[in-house]
Protein backbone atom coordinates (compact mmCIF):
# COMPACT_ATOMS: atom_id res chain seq x y z
CA UNK A 1 0.00 0.00 0.00
CA UNK A 2 1.26 3.47 -0.89
CA UNK A 3 2.16 5.93 1.85
CA UNK A 4 -0.86 7.94 3.00
CA UNK A 5 -0.41 11.68 3.45
CA UNK A 6 -3.31 13.22 5.38
CA UNK A 7 -3.10 16.99 5.64
CA UNK A 8 -4.30 18.86 8.74
CA UNK A 9 -7.52 20.75 8.15
CA UNK A 10 -6.82 24.26 6.91
CA UNK A 11 -7.95 27.07 9.24
CA UNK A 12 -7.88 29.81 6.59
CA UNK A 13 -11.66 30.03 6.15
CA UNK A 14 -12.66 29.42 9.79
CA UNK A 15 -13.74 32.99 10.57
CA UNK A 16 -15.64 33.38 7.30
CA UNK A 17 -17.43 30.05 7.81
CA UNK A 18 -18.35 31.00 11.36
CA UNK A 19 -19.59 34.41 10.29
CA UNK A 20 -21.73 32.94 7.52
CA UNK A 21 -23.34 30.48 9.95
CA UNK A 22 -23.77 33.03 12.76
CA UNK A 23 -25.46 35.65 10.58
CA UNK A 24 -28.23 33.45 9.23
CA UNK A 25 -31.73 34.53 10.26
CA UNK A 26 -31.74 32.74 13.62
CA UNK A 27 -30.58 33.30 17.16
CA UNK A 28 -26.89 32.55 17.58
CA UNK A 29 -26.31 28.80 17.97
CA UNK A 30 -30.00 27.94 17.70
CA UNK A 31 -29.46 25.20 15.11
CA UNK A 32 -27.27 23.37 17.61
CA UNK A 33 -25.33 20.42 16.22
CA UNK A 34 -26.35 21.32 12.68
CA UNK A 35 -24.17 24.41 13.00
CA UNK A 36 -21.20 22.33 14.18
CA UNK A 37 -21.80 19.90 11.35
CA UNK A 38 -22.06 22.63 8.73
CA UNK A 39 -18.85 24.20 10.00
CA UNK A 40 -17.01 20.89 9.76
CA UNK A 41 -18.20 20.10 6.24
CA UNK A 42 -17.27 23.61 5.07
CA UNK A 43 -13.86 23.20 6.66
CA UNK A 44 -13.22 19.77 5.13
CA UNK A 45 -14.22 21.06 1.70
CA UNK A 46 -12.56 24.47 2.25
CA UNK A 47 -15.52 26.37 0.89
CA UNK A 48 -18.35 28.66 1.98
CA UNK A 49 -20.66 26.76 -0.38
CA UNK A 50 -20.45 23.10 0.68
CA UNK A 51 -22.04 20.28 -1.28
CA UNK A 52 -22.91 16.63 -0.92
CA UNK A 53 -22.16 14.91 -4.17
CA UNK A 54 -23.03 11.31 -4.99
CA UNK A 55 -23.03 10.04 -1.39
CA UNK A 56 -21.88 6.44 -1.32
CA UNK A 57 -21.83 3.60 1.18
CA UNK A 58 -19.39 0.75 0.69
CA UNK A 59 -20.34 -2.46 2.48
CA UNK A 60 -17.34 -4.77 2.90
CA UNK A 61 -17.91 -8.44 3.63
CA UNK A 62 -15.47 -10.98 5.00
CA UNK A 63 -15.40 -14.14 7.09
CA UNK A 64 -13.45 -14.74 10.29
CA UNK A 65 -11.53 -17.77 11.49
CA UNK A 66 -12.32 -16.83 15.08
CA UNK A 67 -15.80 -18.33 14.54
CA UNK A 68 -14.12 -21.68 15.24
CA UNK A 69 -14.22 -20.61 18.90
CA UNK A 70 -18.05 -20.48 18.92
CA UNK A 71 -18.21 -16.72 19.46
CA UNK A 72 -21.37 -16.24 17.37
CA UNK A 73 -24.78 -17.91 17.55
CA UNK A 74 -24.97 -17.79 13.72
CA UNK A 75 -23.07 -20.10 11.36
CA UNK A 76 -20.43 -18.65 9.05
CA UNK A 77 -22.52 -19.20 5.90
CA UNK A 78 -24.78 -16.35 6.99
CA UNK A 79 -22.08 -13.98 5.71
CA UNK A 80 -22.45 -15.00 2.08
CA UNK A 81 -26.22 -15.38 2.45
CA UNK A 82 -26.46 -11.78 3.65
CA UNK A 83 -24.26 -10.61 0.78
CA UNK A 84 -26.76 -12.22 -1.57
CA UNK A 85 -29.49 -10.37 0.31
CA UNK A 86 -27.64 -7.07 -0.25
CA UNK A 87 -27.28 -7.85 -3.94
CA UNK A 88 -30.98 -8.66 -4.30
CA UNK A 89 -31.94 -5.41 -2.55
CA UNK A 90 -33.58 -6.98 0.49
CA UNK A 91 -31.47 -5.80 3.45
CA UNK A 92 -31.93 -2.79 5.73
CA UNK A 93 -29.01 -0.97 4.11
CA UNK A 94 -30.69 -1.37 0.71
CA UNK A 95 -33.90 0.17 2.03
CA UNK A 96 -32.18 3.13 3.69
CA UNK A 97 -29.83 3.73 0.77
CA UNK A 98 -32.73 3.77 -1.65
CA UNK A 99 -34.89 6.15 0.34
CA UNK A 100 -31.98 8.59 0.86
CA UNK A 101 -30.57 8.33 -2.69
CA UNK A 102 -27.26 6.81 -1.59
CA UNK A 103 -25.14 4.81 -3.99
CA UNK A 104 -24.56 1.36 -2.48
CA UNK A 105 -21.57 -0.83 -3.27
CA UNK A 106 -20.82 -4.28 -1.85
CA UNK A 107 -17.28 -5.66 -1.79
CA UNK A 108 -16.30 -9.28 -1.23
CA UNK A 109 -13.05 -8.80 0.70
CA UNK A 110 -12.75 -12.33 2.05
CA UNK A 111 -16.01 -14.25 2.19
CA UNK A 112 -15.78 -18.03 2.43
CA UNK A 113 -17.80 -18.41 -0.78
CA UNK A 114 -17.14 -17.82 -4.48
CA UNK A 115 -19.55 -15.29 -5.96
CA UNK A 116 -20.49 -14.98 -9.58
CA UNK A 117 -20.58 -11.52 -11.15
CA UNK A 118 -23.43 -9.31 -9.94
CA UNK A 119 -24.23 -5.66 -10.51
CA UNK A 120 -22.93 -3.71 -7.52
CA UNK A 121 -20.55 -6.45 -6.33
CA UNK A 122 -16.85 -5.61 -6.23
CA UNK A 123 -14.46 -8.57 -6.25
CA UNK A 124 -11.60 -7.90 -3.84
CA UNK A 125 -11.32 -11.27 -2.13
CA UNK A 126 -8.01 -11.77 -0.31
CA UNK A 127 -8.78 -15.26 0.96
CA UNK A 128 -11.73 -17.40 2.02
CA UNK A 129 -11.86 -15.93 5.52
CA UNK A 130 -9.14 -14.95 7.97
CA UNK A 131 -7.28 -17.33 10.23
CA UNK A 132 -8.30 -17.95 13.83
CA UNK A 133 -6.57 -15.25 15.88
CA UNK A 134 -7.03 -17.36 19.00
CA UNK A 135 -4.25 -19.52 17.51
CA UNK A 136 -2.34 -17.32 15.04
CA UNK A 137 -2.49 -13.92 13.39
CA UNK A 138 -5.72 -13.38 11.45
CA UNK A 139 -3.87 -12.03 8.41
CA UNK A 140 -0.35 -12.02 7.09
CA UNK A 141 1.22 -8.60 6.74
CA UNK A 142 0.93 -8.85 2.97
CA UNK A 143 -2.76 -9.75 3.14
CA UNK A 144 -3.48 -6.83 5.45
CA UNK A 145 -1.55 -4.41 3.21
CA UNK A 146 -3.43 -5.69 0.16
CA UNK A 147 -6.80 -5.28 1.88
CA UNK A 148 -5.93 -1.70 2.85
CA UNK A 149 -4.73 -0.97 -0.68
CA UNK A 150 -8.00 -2.37 -2.06
CA UNK A 151 -9.98 0.01 0.14
CA UNK A 152 -7.87 2.93 -1.02
CA UNK A 153 -8.42 1.95 -4.66
CA UNK A 154 -12.20 1.76 -4.25
CA UNK A 155 -12.34 5.20 -2.62
CA UNK A 156 -10.15 6.77 -5.30
CA UNK A 157 -12.43 5.37 -7.99
CA UNK A 158 -15.53 6.75 -6.27
CA UNK A 159 -13.96 10.21 -5.92
CA UNK A 160 -13.21 10.15 -9.66
CA UNK A 161 -16.91 9.45 -10.24
CA UNK A 162 -17.94 12.53 -8.28
CA UNK A 163 -18.42 11.21 -4.73
CA UNK A 164 -17.34 13.52 -1.89
CA UNK A 165 -19.13 11.86 1.07
CA UNK A 166 -18.54 8.19 1.79
CA UNK A 167 -19.71 5.85 4.53
CA UNK A 168 -18.79 2.27 5.28
CA UNK A 169 -20.73 -0.79 6.34
CA UNK A 170 -19.75 -4.40 6.86
CA UNK A 171 -20.92 -7.98 7.04
CA UNK A 172 -19.02 -10.84 8.61
CA UNK A 173 -20.07 -13.43 11.17
CA UNK A 174 -17.56 -13.15 14.03
CA UNK A 175 -16.55 -9.57 13.30
CA UNK A 176 -17.79 -8.16 16.61
CA UNK A 177 -15.17 -10.40 18.25
CA UNK A 178 -12.47 -8.97 15.98
CA UNK A 179 -13.70 -5.42 16.62
CA UNK A 180 -13.76 -5.96 20.39
CA UNK A 181 -10.21 -7.35 20.30
CA UNK A 182 -9.05 -4.28 18.37
CA UNK A 183 -10.70 -2.03 20.95
CA UNK A 184 -8.94 -3.91 23.75
CA UNK A 185 -5.55 -3.59 22.09
CA UNK A 186 -5.75 -0.02 20.78
CA UNK A 187 -7.73 1.38 23.70
CA UNK A 188 -6.29 -0.71 26.53
CA UNK A 189 -9.79 -1.89 27.43
CA UNK A 190 -10.56 -5.10 29.32
CA UNK A 191 -12.44 -7.71 27.22
CA UNK A 192 -15.31 -7.79 29.74
CA UNK A 193 -16.05 -4.16 28.88
CA UNK A 194 -15.41 -4.46 25.16
CA UNK A 195 -17.63 -7.46 24.44
CA UNK A 196 -21.34 -7.30 23.68
CA UNK A 197 -24.10 -9.48 22.30
CA UNK A 198 -23.12 -9.18 18.63
CA UNK A 199 -25.71 -11.12 16.64
CA UNK A 200 -27.52 -12.20 19.80
CA UNK A 201 -25.29 -13.91 22.36
CA UNK A 202 -26.70 -14.50 25.82
CA UNK A 203 -24.78 -13.57 28.99
CA UNK A 204 -22.88 -16.87 28.99
CA UNK A 205 -21.96 -16.40 25.34
CA UNK A 206 -20.68 -12.88 25.97
CA UNK A 207 -18.57 -14.18 28.85
CA UNK A 208 -17.11 -16.87 26.59
CA UNK A 209 -16.34 -14.30 23.88
CA UNK A 210 -14.48 -12.15 26.44
CA UNK A 211 -12.46 -15.17 27.57
CA UNK A 212 -11.52 -16.01 23.98
CA UNK A 213 -10.31 -12.46 23.44
CA UNK A 214 -8.44 -12.37 26.75
CA UNK A 215 -6.57 -15.55 25.84
CA UNK A 216 -5.79 -14.20 22.35
CA UNK A 217 -4.43 -10.97 23.83
CA UNK A 218 -2.07 -13.04 25.98
CA UNK A 219 -1.01 -15.13 22.98
CA UNK A 220 -0.21 -12.01 20.96
CA UNK A 221 1.03 -9.82 23.82
CA UNK A 222 4.22 -8.90 21.93
CA UNK A 223 2.25 -7.37 19.04
CA UNK A 224 2.46 -3.61 19.38
CA UNK A 225 2.65 -1.58 16.16
CA UNK A 226 -0.69 -0.21 14.91
CA UNK A 227 -0.44 -2.09 11.63
CA UNK A 228 0.54 -5.37 13.27
CA UNK A 229 -2.39 -5.11 15.68
CA UNK A 230 -4.77 -4.76 12.73
CA UNK A 231 -3.20 -7.72 10.91
CA UNK A 232 -3.30 -9.88 14.04
CA UNK A 233 -6.83 -9.26 15.28
CA UNK A 234 -8.71 -7.66 12.38
CA UNK A 235 -10.61 -8.97 9.40
CA UNK A 236 -10.31 -8.50 5.66
CA UNK A 237 -13.37 -6.25 5.68
CA UNK A 238 -12.05 -4.22 8.62
CA UNK A 239 -8.64 -3.76 6.99
CA UNK A 240 -10.29 -2.78 3.70
CA UNK A 241 -12.41 -0.16 5.46
CA UNK A 242 -9.35 1.07 7.37
CA UNK A 243 -7.43 1.63 4.15
CA UNK A 244 -10.47 3.23 2.56
CA UNK A 245 -10.89 5.67 5.45
CA UNK A 246 -7.23 6.69 5.34
CA UNK A 247 -7.44 7.30 1.59
CA UNK A 248 -10.72 9.22 1.89
CA UNK A 249 -9.12 11.54 4.45
CA UNK A 250 -6.08 12.02 2.23
CA UNK A 251 -8.44 12.97 -0.62
CA UNK A 252 -10.30 15.41 1.66
CA UNK A 253 -13.59 13.55 1.47
CA UNK A 254 -16.14 13.57 4.28
CA UNK A 255 -16.21 10.19 6.03
CA UNK A 256 -19.52 9.12 7.57
CA UNK A 257 -18.71 6.63 10.34
CA UNK A 258 -21.16 3.86 11.19
CA UNK A 259 -21.21 1.63 14.27
CA UNK A 260 -19.06 -0.84 16.19
CA UNK A 261 -17.28 -2.66 13.34
CA UNK A 262 -16.76 0.38 11.12
CA UNK A 263 -15.44 2.32 14.12
CA UNK A 264 -13.00 -0.49 14.91
CA UNK A 265 -11.57 0.11 11.43
CA UNK A 266 -11.35 3.78 12.29
CA UNK A 267 -9.51 3.25 15.59
CA UNK A 268 -6.99 1.22 13.58
CA UNK A 269 -6.74 4.04 11.03
CA UNK A 270 -6.45 6.57 13.87
CA UNK A 271 -3.60 4.58 15.44
CA UNK A 272 -1.83 4.61 12.07
CA UNK A 273 -2.61 8.27 11.24
CA UNK A 274 -4.41 10.25 13.99
CA UNK A 275 -5.52 13.09 11.71
CA UNK A 276 -7.95 10.79 9.90
CA UNK A 277 -10.61 11.70 12.49
CA UNK A 278 -10.57 15.34 11.34
CA UNK A 279 -12.45 14.17 8.25
CA UNK A 280 -14.96 12.01 10.11
CA UNK A 281 -18.57 12.59 11.10
CA UNK A 282 -19.88 10.04 13.58
CA UNK A 283 -23.38 9.03 12.58
CA UNK A 284 -24.58 7.34 15.76
CA UNK A 285 -23.72 5.51 18.95
CA UNK A 286 -24.35 1.81 18.57
CA UNK A 287 -26.18 -0.22 21.18
CA UNK A 288 -23.34 -2.75 20.96
CA UNK A 289 -21.38 -2.68 24.20
CA UNK A 290 -17.98 -1.23 23.51
CA UNK A 291 -18.97 1.31 20.86
CA UNK A 292 -19.32 4.04 23.47
CA UNK A 293 -15.77 3.24 24.58
CA UNK A 294 -14.57 3.50 20.99
CA UNK A 295 -16.20 6.92 20.65
CA UNK A 296 -14.64 8.04 23.92
CA UNK A 297 -11.26 6.77 22.74
CA UNK A 298 -11.61 8.92 19.62
CA UNK A 299 -13.12 11.89 21.56
CA UNK A 300 -16.07 11.69 19.18
CA UNK A 301 -19.60 13.03 19.53
CA UNK A 302 -22.20 10.99 17.59
CA UNK A 303 -25.17 12.62 15.86
CA UNK A 304 -27.74 9.99 16.83
CA UNK A 305 -28.48 7.41 19.50
CA UNK A 306 -31.25 5.17 18.21
CA UNK A 307 -30.28 1.91 19.88
CA UNK A 308 -29.01 0.51 16.57
CA UNK A 309 -26.61 -2.44 16.43
CA UNK A 310 -27.24 -3.89 12.99
CA UNK A 311 -24.16 -2.66 11.16
CA UNK A 312 -24.25 -2.80 7.33
CA UNK A 313 -23.74 0.99 7.31
CA UNK A 314 -27.35 1.54 8.39
CA UNK A 315 -26.54 4.25 10.92
CA UNK A 316 -24.52 6.14 8.33
CA UNK A 317 -27.35 5.95 5.81
CA UNK A 318 -29.92 7.19 8.32
CA UNK A 319 -27.67 10.11 9.29
CA UNK A 320 -27.06 11.37 5.76
CA UNK A 321 -30.19 13.59 5.65
CA UNK A 322 -28.83 15.42 8.69
CA UNK A 323 -25.69 16.27 6.71
CA UNK A 324 -27.88 17.38 3.82
CA UNK A 325 -29.86 19.62 6.18
CA UNK A 326 -26.65 21.20 7.47
CA UNK A 327 -25.41 21.90 3.95
CA UNK A 328 -28.82 23.22 2.86
CA UNK A 329 -29.12 25.82 5.61
CA UNK A 330 -25.62 27.15 4.89
CA UNK A 331 -26.34 27.49 1.19
CA UNK A 332 -30.01 28.47 1.11
CA UNK A 333 -31.01 30.16 4.36
CA UNK A 334 -31.07 33.97 4.26
CA UNK A 335 -28.72 36.08 6.29
CA UNK A 336 -30.14 38.94 8.32
CA UNK A 337 -28.89 41.31 5.61
CA UNK A 338 -30.46 39.27 2.80
CA UNK A 339 -33.82 39.14 4.49
CA UNK A 340 -33.85 42.73 5.73
CA UNK A 341 -34.32 41.43 9.28
CA UNK A 342 -32.82 43.34 12.17
CA UNK A 343 -30.19 41.46 14.09
CA UNK A 344 -29.84 41.86 17.86
CA UNK A 345 -28.01 44.98 18.98
Brief synopsis:
The protein has helices at 14-22, 33-45, 78-88, 92-99, 141-160, 175-187, 191-194, 203-219, 226-233, 236-250, 260-272, 291-297, 314-332, 336-339, and strands spanning 56-62, 103-110, 121-123, 165-171, 254-257, 280-282.
Task: Write up what this structure looks like.
The protein is an alpha/beta fold. The chain has a single domain, classed as Nicotinate-nucleotide-dimethylbenzimidazole phosphoribosyltransferase (CobT), large domain (Rossmann fold, 3-Layer(aba) Sandwich), CATH 3.40.50.10210. Helix content is 47%, strand content 9%. It is built from 14 helices and 6 strands. The chain has helices spanning 14-22, 33-45, 78-88, 92-99, 141-160, 175-187, 191-194, 203-219, 226-233, 236-250, 260-272, 291-297, 314-332, 336-339; strands at 56-62, 103-110, 121-123, 165-171, 254-257, 280-282. It has a 6-stranded parallel sheet with strand order 3-2-1-4-5-6, sandwiched between helices. α11 links the parallel β5 (254-257) and β6. α11 (260-272) runs parallel beside α12. The relative contact order is 0.18. The model has no long low-confidence stretch (mean pLDDT 96).
Secondary-structure topology with pairs:
Blueprint: H1 14-22, H2 33-45, E1 56-62, H3 78-88, H4 92-99, E2 103-110, E3 121-123, H5 141-160, E4 165-171, H6 175-187, H7 191-194, H8 203-219, H9 226-233, H10 236-250, E5 254-257, H11 260-272, E6 280-282, H12 291-297, H13 314-332, H14 336-339
Parallel strand pairs: 1-2, 1-4, 2-3, 4-5, 5-6
Helix pairs in contact: 1-2, 2-13, 5-10, 6-8, 6-9, 6-11, 9-11, 10-11, 11-12
